[in-house]
Amino acid sequence: MLLAIDVGNSETVFGLFQGDDLVEQWRVGTDRRRTADEWAVVLRGLIDGSAMGGQGDVDGLSMCCSVPSVQHEMRDMFRRHFGDVPAVIVEPGVRTGVPIRMDNPKEVGSDRIINALAAKHLYGGPAVVVDFGTATTFDAVSVKGEYVGGAIAPGIDISVDALSRRGAQLHMVEIVKPRAAIAKNTTEALRSGIVFGFAGQVDGIVDRMVTELTDAPDDVTVVATGGLAPVVVGECETVDVHDPWLTLAGLRLVFERNVA
Predict the structure, then answer these.
(1) pTM
(2) Is 111 a catalytic residue?
(3) 6, 111, 139, 243: which is the annotated catalytic residue?
(4) By mean pLDDT, which of 94-103, 137-146, 173-182, 243-252 is the weakest?
C-alpha cells in the first residue's frame, strides 16, 4: 500500500492507497513542535487501528509539505521508521510531469503543483483548482496540463479569526450555512458575511481566471478541494466538482512517475 501525506499549514492529511483506490484517509492538526518519533507514533496508531492492517503493509511513501520544519521531521521519520520503503518528497528535481509557466517556478508550493497534476489527470484541462486551506488558493491549468499561474487569498479561518480579534462586539461562530443573506442577529450576520462573502469571492476570481485561460469557458472544469471547502462550495455557482482528496490522488500519481 502507498501512504500519501499532504502537510498543510493547519492540517495534515494522510491517505492509504491500495492500487489506484484510496481506502483510508485521516486528517490531523499540523503541529510544528512534533518530532519525527511523535509523527511515527501518530501514523502507527492510525494505520494499525485501520481495517487495512499494520504499518508493515506500507510499501511506498509520497509526501508534499508546505511547512519546512515539519518536512525536516517527516524526512527523518521516513529514514528511521520506514528505512526500506521507497519514498518521494515533492521538491525541486522530482518529476511531476507538470510544466510550470511562472516567473520563478520554485516559488510555487508543491501542493499546488500536485493539485494541478491530479486535476488534469482526473478531469482534463483546462481546469481551475480552488483549494480551501489556511489560504484559499486558485490555480489555473492549461489544456496541455501546464501550471500557468494562480491567485492567493486569505483563508476562511484566518479571516474569521482576524474579525473576532479586531471587532470588539464580534465573536467566533460555528461556520454553517446561514438561513438568509439578510440576518436578524449578529451570529447569523457573521455567517452570512463569511459563507456568502467567500462564495462570491470564489465565483468572482474563477470567472476572471476562466476568461484569461481560454476562449471556450465551458471547457474549463473548476475543482474545489481542501478541508474548508464544504463550508462554502455549496454556495458557489462556478464549482463543477468537489474532490476532497485531490492532493492525495496527485501524490499517488507523482509516486508512480518517480518510483514505479
Answers:
(1) 0.90
(2) yes
(3) 111
(4) 173-182
